[in-house]
Amino acid sequence: MSELVHSVVEGPADGPVVVFSGSLGSDHRMWDPQVKPLVEKGFRVIRYDSRGHGASPVPPGPYTLEDLGGDLVALLDEHGAERAHVVGLSLGGMTGMWLGVHAPDRIESLVLCCTSAKLGPPSMWADRAKTVRKNGTASVAEAGVGRWLTPGHVAAHPGQAAFLREMIAAVPAEGYAASCQAVERMDLVGDLPKIAARTLVIAGAEDPATPVEHAEVIAGGIPDARLAVVEGAAHLGSFEQPERFTALILEHLEAAR
Example GO molecular function term (predicted)? Predict the structure, then answer.
């Protein structure tokens, strides 16, 4: 059953639609650095909080990738978008791949950032879900930021690190845990060749959560996908290296346009 998720829309009403789908533990603000550059180029930018996150509903878990993909299709319907460019990071990238396989007619192009088509071991996700249900999301916020940003960036930008820690800690425990369960059971590797959308895969060279090899599997599996590796980026590369990620995204969108 699809949920109507919380979304924020910026840019011209008649611009090509770009939907940004975020990481586990984030809300739509993780994409703040990308909004202005895209709006200035005439794109209509839709950001949303994944189910169980931010201001979106928190249905009881577990969630599946099909649930998350269905929410994104419902979001497109809500905004009258027949097709959209989908930019997803981590869990958002997994959602984008699901759409590429199961709702190809709704996808103009895909940008898959710092993500994986299969992210084991399942026990790690089951354990993390259990921890969060027991101790809340604040208990994983420090470790989360440790994966999202390189240690050098945390040291140089303590305010950004604090902002992201608070973002993770604010996610409802059930929403976070139920989303972990979607990743736990996910395996999209065999479906990658079915994705026909023009696809850009972006990896962070220092990403400990979804290392570059995961991006190579995706880029190798999707026909004609392009791979870019960004130096000095951990898992939340779009936030840590916004200029480089935004330039890559814009270049891809303009080429697809």
Answer: 3-oxoadipate enol-lactonase activity
Q: Which helix (H) or strand (E) holds 172?
A: none
Question: Could you report the per-residue pLDDT of 112-151, keeping only the tens digit for each?
Answer: 999 999 998 999 999 999 999 999 999 999 999 999 999 9
172 occurs within a structural domain: no
Q: Which of 88, 55, 91, 58 is nearest to 180 (CA)?
A: 91
What's the CATH code of the domain at 40?
A: 3.40.50.1820
Q: What is the pTM of this model?
A: 0.98
pLDDT tens digits, residue range 145-190? 999 999 999 999 999 999 999 999 999 999 999 999 999 999 999 9
- Give CA–CA dist 103/155, Å, rounded: 42
For tokens 């004609």, name the residue: 224
H, E, C per residue of 83-129 = CEEEEEECHHHHHHHHHHHHCHHHEEEEEEECCCCCCCCHHHHHHHH
In a domain, 176, yes or no: no
| Residue 197: inside a domain | yes
Compute CA distances 129 → 210, 217, 227, whole Å: 18, 26, 31
